[in-house]
Design brief:
about 200 residues; six-stranded parallel β-sheet; 6 helices; single chain; two-stranded antiparallel sheet; alpha/beta
Length: about 200
């Protein structure tokens, strides 16, 4: 049992509120570009997460929502309502983020900016990748999440394009990365559980 589980009196196998209210954790894919590898990483995280049995995990692909640049004249923002409902229905998140020019993608920043209250008082973990594990993108994302009142957890699986991918595109993570993901999820579940009581 993790430190946070002990702190909040949780059992790792059944971390629920009221015994029957399963947490809903969205795994947000942070890239929309052609040839992206974020779906591979997201599916891997979901596979690990589903084995835990402590929440309902769902892939959320921002590419599936029509979200033009926020405030763009004449943009088709018909997907905004569905995006709002999707995020509002989650208790916590895992962001799959890659590093573009020392930061997160424009698509992810835009998707975050579309909403406000839907993010508030929820928890999030970050799984990043890049030439330096996506560390710089993660630091930028943490600042944005703080402004949105999202409690981002400390443990941060950082995947290297050199050691966790073949030819920069075929995702083959080292075994140690799975342990890091589970440690991160321990914290996400604990904090999501605690913050759900704040939102009630």
């Amino acid at each position: 049992m993790s430190f946070f589980s002990k702190l909040f009196g949780l059992d790792n196998k059944t971390q629920q509120i009221g015994g029957n209210d399963m947490l809903k954790i969205g795994i947000v894919l942070g890239s929309t570009r052609e040839g992206r590898v974020s779906p591979q990483v997201g599916e891997w995280v979901k596979e690990l997460a589903d084995k835990r049995g402590d929440a309902e995990y769902q892939i959320i692909d921002i590419a599936e929502f029509k979200l033009p640049l926020l405030g763009e004249a004449g943009g088709d923002a018909s997907g905004a309502a569905a995006w709002s409902a999707q995020i509002n229905g989650c208790d916590g998140f895992v962001f799959i983020t890659q590093e573009y020019n020392h930061s997160i993608t424009g698509a992810l920043k835009n998707a975050l900016d579309y909403l406000r209250d839907e993010w508030n008082n929820k928890a999030a973990g970050i799984v990043s990748y890049g030439s330096v594990g996506g560390a710089r993108a993660t630091e930028h994302l943490r600042g944005i999440l703080s402004e949105l009142s999202v409690a981002h957890v400390r443990v941060h699986p950082a995947l290297s394009l050199f050691t966790d991918f073949e030819n920069g595109s075929d995702f083959k993570p080292k075994d140690v990365q799975a342990d890091s993901v589970n440690q991160m999820l321990d914290q996400v579940i604990s904090w999501s559980t605690a913050l759900k009581t704040v939102r009630k």
